[in-house]
Amino acid sequence: MVVTEATACTLVTGGTGVVGQAVVRRLLATGRRVCLTYGANSTVAERLVAEAPGLVAVRADLRSLNIAQLLDKVADRAGPVEALVHAAALVDHTPVASLDAEHFAEVLTVNVTAAFALARELAKRGTLRDVVLLSSIAASIADLGSVAYTTSKGATDALTRALALHLAPVRVNAVAPGIIRSHRTDGDPLFSGPAARIPDAALVAPGAVADVVSYLLDGAPDALSGQVLGVDGGASLRRL
């Protein structure tokens, strides 16, 4: 299939999350056709579509891994997918004593397995050019999430490198944010201490992550693949 700018779209999973929304808005601003997936947050999806009439929103339960069916729906409504941004994630803080195997597997399914399945299926369809996965500094700083979340982000980094090798010439990269500024972190003493010790004394704005995602899709050289780019204000440079 020949994919042109007029027909191709960028698929953003988890497009109603804090980072996902920023990515969707940033890519729309560059002129990209965008399709987002969302889980239960239909209100945010409807608002985003109302703000941007060209935006397509598709409900998806990535835990089910019905990937071919999902991508058929995306293609019918938004066109073939030339770029995938996997921003969907279960952000989990379950203590290890309460974290059973089923929940551990669920976190990895959404955060890692779905990313693999989406990239693999899109590569088979022959339209894919770029993949950007959302990782986290939790991949190397183990106290920023549960065992399941930390494991999933470490696996995301490894998946980025492996997919870049096996899906070439498709470019595959990842963005690893620090603690994201949001309604969850503003005013929360749990995050005020770490923020004060980050070199630029600030949590990461979602827009900063979106800017790097946009760069990877539209500004980065072809030689940039298999890389994990930290966007953390320097947080990973020192112990928080």
TrEMBL record:
InterPro entries: KR_dom, NAD(P)-bd_dom_sf, Sc_DH/Rdtase_CS, SDR_fam. Keywords: Oxidoreductase. Residues 8-183 form the Ketoreductase domain. Its EC number is 1.3.1.-. Coiled coil: none annotated. The keyword Oxidoreductase applies. Pfam families: adh_short_C2. The keyword Nucleus does not apply. It is an enzyme of class 1 (oxidoreductase). Gene3D superfamilies: NAD(P)-binding Rossmann-like Domain. GO terms for molecular function: oxidoreductase activity. PANTHER family: OXIDOREDUCTASE, SHORT-CHAIN DEHYDROGENASE/REDUCTASE FAMILY (AFU_ORTHOLOGUE AFUA_5G02870) (PTHR43639), SHORT-CHAIN DEHYDROGENASE_REDUCTASE FAMILY PROTEIN (PTHR43639:SF1). Belongs to the short-chain dehydrogenases/reductases (SDR) family. This is Putative Granaticin polyketide synthase ketoacyl reductase 2.
